[in-house]
Amino acid sequence: MAMSPADVRTRGRHVTYVNNRKPDRTLLVMAQQATAGRRYLRAFVSGFFVAVPVTVTVLDRFAYVARVEGASMQPSLNPEGGSDCDVVLLNRWSVRNYQVQRGDIVSVMSPKNPQQKIIKRVIGLEGDFIRTLGYKNRYVRVPDGHFWIEGDHHGHSLDSNSFGPVSVGLLHGRASHIIWPPHRWQQIKPSLPANRGPLDTQEEEG
Questions:
Q1: Residue 120 and residue 68: Cα distance in Å, rounded?
Q2: Using an 8 Å Cβ cutoff, are 174 and 158 in contact?
Q3: What is the DSSP letter of 37?
Q4: Could you tell me the CA-to-CA distances from 155 to 52, 71, 119, 133, 183 in Å, in that order?
Q5: pLDDT tens readout for residues 105-153
Q6: Residues 197 and 123: beta-carbon distance below 8 Å
Q7: Cis ω on the peptide bond leading into residue 5 (within 30° of 0)?
Q8: Distance (Å, rounded) from C-alpha 174 to C-alpha 77?
Q9: What is the Cα–Cα distance from 33 to 11, expressed in whole angstroms?
Q10: Where are the alpha helices (DSSP H) in 63-159?
């Protein structure tokens, strides 16, 4: 005799039968599958909400992508201008100890606006003497725990020539690759523009 759904009740993994009727195997399997399905669904949903923040945290800690806007880094970034903006991969793990080298293109929190991030090139490290471009002092010694950053497109960049040396604590990431648009894909290697970089001590004294 076939059983109606009312004749089967499930409690976790245990199945009880109403009126002591012999169970129909098909209905029994269906009831067990329904119970297992609900259990797996609960596990998936709870796991999803745990996994998503972890994924975001991992990505934010190791690397992320950013769209570069403006002309301050031309011709290195956004060489074509207009609406065609480069998208770069910013490596956060490589600067976790606030270590960069001259010529790196980095992302830092703006000293003028903590809500804004800017992308510039490292020109000098702590202890370097820099010949500035329009800063209040013609020569600057970069203090400990700071670096000197500039945009490649001088005259179109708000950088250390405006606000001085920048604390390494504002460092957010190092640009390692241009990943968009496709024809611009390339690794970004450290390099200094012509006539920029730290002064030789003897040259500074002369």
A1: 11
A2: no
A3: H
A4: 43, 10, 15, 9, 28
A5: 999 999 989 889 999 999 999 999 999 998 999 999 999 999 999 999 9
A6: yes
A7: no
A8: 14
A9: 13
A10: none
